[in-house]
Amino acid sequence: MAQQDGIFKIKGTLGGVTFYKTKDGYMAREKGGIDRRRLAADPAFRRTRENGQEFGTAGRYGKYLRAAVRSVMQHASDKRVVSRLVKKLMEILKTDSVNDRGLRNPADGELGLLKGFEFNVEGQLSVTLFAMYTAVLERPGGTAQVDVPAMIPSQMIKAPGGTTHYRIVSAAAEVDFLEGLSLLTTDGTAILPYNDVESAPAVLQTGITPASTLPLVQLLGVEFYQEVNGTFYMLNNGSFNALAIVNVSKP
Question: Domain spans of the chain?
Fold first, then answer.
């Protein structure tokens, strides 16, 4: 790998050399790689094919999960959430003891390892909400509930500067990872003042299909607002909002 030096910085391929930009600057390397037909058929690359197939499976699962919860994560996710979620799903996929290599998938592994996944590393729920909430995901009756106790917001919620109000949100999703279909229900508190006055307890309920045969995911988050002339604006376009998976249930 060589570093480009000069006035003109090139990106692309020229004369068998690929020029590209990284966080360390503009780089250049000789174009190479394994022939695609050989990679697809040569027994020597069987493990490579299996790894590629499983990486694709993890990517598909991540895509379907993000699509399922898009309405609650659109203002509560960081720029690397896609790669971080795929990395976690690859970790889960490797716990699948049912299927052969290349055919393993997260649903047949320890899917519960998704619990605690943070969608926004810039505003993690684990270091944002300190109130001792309880989250229950009940498959037979089709209920998902979060109970948040009475609390003093300024003491139990770590808010970014400029916050005048906040809102606690919850969601429950059923995700069909084979077909890419999903169902999401949401609930949330009103937009509440961020101050030293004790808030009332909150019960957030999100119904799901009773006795669902699909994987279930329950989420909890906190949104931050700034009030200006009676209008509430999501603080910094939601870049500090927290959202995490608090429960997972396999059928």
Answer: 43-249
